[in-house]
């Protein structure tokens, strides 16, 4: 069950909407005269919200969930509110909050509740943290228990460093960034402002670079990785995601990049602004990705590739060559009942041969029915 | 080499079998009169076990490994023992332990040795741990060095918290759970009794939720994740696996769920009781999985899907639509020598066209050999 | 931007080449008489290196990048230097360093700069580390802040243990190994000499072993994992990679094995010497891999498989049966524009049927054009 505010700290609905609407969406409360005074302690879904929660209808197809909704208030578009009224005689038990973009308003409300929660978190430098004498911490920096900040680190104003984080020598973190517990930055890693780094993130581990070792046949000699990692502003990186340092130059993530959990970005990669990747994606070394790309979960990218701007890759797809043109790309073997898969997969290894046989059958057919055209390009 | 008990602490075979057999399988020792007094310091495989180890035959096809087995004792089914005797004149150098279910008896013995090892581990609260004043720790809780327990946490009786763990504010852990070193729970994460959480596990990181930011074209606005994580009893979660917190409601793992290493469970997912997933599986947000599902390694699931009970997914399969019917499902491109793969994969991009051409060839053939039936459904 | 040495600590070019060339490649400096005295503070790429950096040309196709190169010196093969001179009238602004193997010389230089950086790192045992009284630390061991070393651990000479590492009871680490921050070794894990373990690595978590629990239908009983992990010399393991302990015997990595980030090696696996795996690979339990295998990123291996020596698996390939013969193997669904993929993927589920229809069409064609041979093996 989500954590709710204590009743005495819950804001009134009208006050909450005003405080949360930082982008000027504008919301109107419809309902009983005192609806604006309802105390709102949290957000719930249409199906589960209780009398102290606000909910929202963002997908008009879920209209029917309004019928049983037990929330104090529901955010919805004016046209959905009209549709509700057309279907119901009396007033609903919830106050209607009319808003042109309910999902965005929900996002703003969620941010408000999260800011409220964060305001209650501990502040200052925990005495158990180990901080190098020459590290520079700006005003209002929080360092949690048992964090380690090495020599030459620079931390911007308002940054929160969670418990057990390790910030390597000479690295830097921009203002108002949030590092959850147990994030690791190696040396020479530079993170911009307003970053959110989740637990288990590792930035700046060595890229995977080896050359054949001339002294031992079959053995690999390590190529020390001398570059760093450079991350723009407004980047979020999910739990246990790793971004390796560059071999010679830096590995670079642009502004507004969003990485989900368990992603691996290889050395020397350059990821364009506002590109978002769902969980479990792997990007091999030296691949460049454009701006505003959207990468589905568990997609995999070979090394030294180039992706253009606005390329969307479906989840589970392996990309092994450049994709320069914007659009959506997919390569996934369709799932089937196991026995059916076995039958069909067995044919995969004969496809080139089948194509040849089809060609021969076409020729025979053409010979057998002379004069009938074959309406396709010949291929082999 | 596995760690063995010191000789003076090794139990006698008969005593060990009695102590380990907590489910009443019943085992009979056959062999020399003093076989029950043999000292057993550990468990070994048939091929490697030494004179102070017990081994087991669970797969009858491995019968031949009994011939060279150097173990002190071997657990096997009565019928396999008879088969051995039929093939050999003399008595083996090992004592035969007759048991209807050797693999289960092995599991029980392994648990016994593990309990014995754990009994020797340090107890109590390590002075270097950082524990909030208002955290509630029940009797017999162990907290390892440099662990952090934040405000409002509740820890059940007999729980072991490993070195370097971080337990976020307001979270709770049920009795007799075991957290290995360096596990992270965010705030508002609730774990049931008898859980085993391995190193690097992260529970409760933010789900991956964004809405288009109206202020910057192409940019993403974060949707704060206000739900929590709720995990049933008897759950095991492998190293570096992550389970994200819900957006509004909780992400839920049922009782007896077993997750291997490096798995990612997205926000709002609900995983049914006793479902087991092998390593590297990814489940995108808001997907619901039934009870007793078995998911092979590296299988991937899209978001907002529903899987029924008793669905088995083969390793490496990408699931992109609902699967409600119990059974086994697969979708994996068959591996082949690279050159053969290249030839056949090149045809994949022409399959729709080939189907069309086959249809045309069938028509031509039918025209050319009028009267011969075509014995299939036409498709395109 | 990569970290460079301060100008007063940068070595002269001739001195640097002599110190770095530990394998006797032999490099000759061509250029102005005082070229050997140029101060070199770091390594840069041909496109970005500045006046205090050395660069290298390893791929002759990048010759044209020499034209605008701003480096102090460039390592290149004699024949590439001749080609440059043939294309240019005057001397370049950089000193030419002639070397038969520029990429290897670059690797050696990178190692030199990295050794130089490491020489400046803190030494000794940080007072905040928690070290068991009976742990044995050889000479010159460094233990970073807030690391934990449990009972009975043995650490070889010159080992560096990073901040926040946890070394479990009875484990051992060979001489001159480097553990970056936040590495976890469970109990009974043995690592050879000169290992490099990156942040988030977990060695020795429980393998994923369960038997049906006879007391609860559908439930799983844990099989305690009593084996350990044994890792040879000269092994590197990337960030957040996990290697599980064996069920009965040890999980084994041979000498010179190189694992990239986010890899999962299941229990009881045996990986042969000098085998290298790119990121995100998963190997299920009890699989044996030969020597000098090369595994592409995100390849996945079923359990209980055997791979021979010198097997190369392409990235993204799922391996579900033994591969004993050396060579390269692939199994990846080709990526395509989404609409094209949809059309072609829909045919996958009909392949067995299409093969049958083709066979029928061939028979009809043969009947219609009697006397024309069909030149292929019949399959169904």
UniProtKB/TrEMBL annotation, chains A, B, C:
Give the E.C. number(s): 2.3.1.191
Q: List the Pfam families.
A: Hexapep (PF00132), Hexapep_2 (PF14602), LpxD (PF04613)
Which residues does the entry assign to the active site, renumbered to this chain?
A: 267 (proton acceptor)
GO biological process terms on file: lipid A biosynthetic process
Specify whether Acyltransferase is a keyword of the entry: yes
Q: Which GO terms describe its molecular function?
A: N-acyltransferase activity; UDP-3-O-[(3R)-3-hydroxyacyl]-glucosamine N-acyltransferase activity
**Which EC class, in a word?**
transferase
How is the quaternary structure described? Homotrimer.
Task performed by this protein: Catalyzes the N-acylation of UDP-3-O-acylglucosamine using 3-hydroxyacyl-ACP as the acyl donor. Is involved in the biosynthesis of lipid A, a phosphorylated glycolipid that anchors the lipopolysaccharide to the outer membrane of the cell.
Protein name in UniProt: UDP-3-O-acylglucosamine N-acyltransferase
């Amino acid at each position: 069950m989500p954590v709710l505010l204590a009743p005495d700290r819950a804001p009134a609905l009208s006050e909450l909407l005003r405080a949360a609407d930082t982008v000027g969406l504008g919301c109107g409360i419809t309902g009983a005269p005192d609806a604006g005074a309802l105390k709102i302690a949290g957000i719930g879904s249409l199906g589960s919200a209780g009398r102290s929660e606000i909910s929202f209808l963002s997908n008009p197809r879920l209209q029917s969930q309004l019928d049983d909704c037990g929330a104090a208030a529901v955010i919805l578009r004016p046209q959905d509110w009209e549709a509700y009224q057309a279907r119901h005689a009396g007033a609903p038990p919830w106050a209607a909050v009319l808003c042109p973009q309910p999902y965005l308003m929900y996002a703003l409300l969620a941010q408000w509740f999260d800011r409220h929660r964060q305001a209650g978190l501990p502040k200052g430098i925990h005495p158990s943290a180990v901080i190098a004498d020459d590290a520079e911490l700006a005003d209002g920096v929080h360092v949690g228990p048992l964090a380690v900040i090495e020599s030459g680190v620079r931390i911007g104003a308002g940054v929160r460093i969670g418990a057990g984080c390790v910030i390597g020598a000479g690295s830097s973190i921009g203002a108002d960034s949030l590092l959850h517990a147990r994030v690791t930055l190696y040396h020479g890693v530079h993170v911009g402002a307003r970053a959110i780094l989740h637990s288990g993130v590792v930035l700046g581990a060595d890229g995977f670079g080896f050359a054949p070792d001339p002294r031992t046949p079959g053995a690999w000699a390590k190529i020390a990785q001398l570059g760093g990692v450079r991350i723009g502003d407004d980047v979020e990186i999910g739990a246990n995601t790793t971004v390796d340092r560059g071999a010679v130059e830096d590995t670079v993530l642009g502004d507004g990049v969003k990485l989900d959990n368990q992603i691996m970005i290889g050395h020397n990669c350059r990821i364009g602004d506002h590109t978002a990747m769902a969980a479990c994606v792997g990007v091999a070394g030296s691949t460049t990705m454009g701006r505003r790309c959207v990468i589905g979960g568990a997609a995999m990218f070979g090394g030294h590739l180039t992706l253009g701007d606005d390329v969307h890759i479906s989840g589970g797809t392996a990309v092994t060559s450049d994709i320069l043109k914007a659009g959506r790309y997919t390569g996934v073997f369709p799932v089937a009942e196991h026995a059916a898969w076995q039958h069909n997969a067995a044919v995969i290894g004969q496809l080139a041969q089948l194509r040849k046989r089809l060609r021969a059958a076409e020729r025979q057919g053409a010979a057998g029915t002379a004069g009938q055209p074959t309406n396709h390009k010949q291929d082999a």
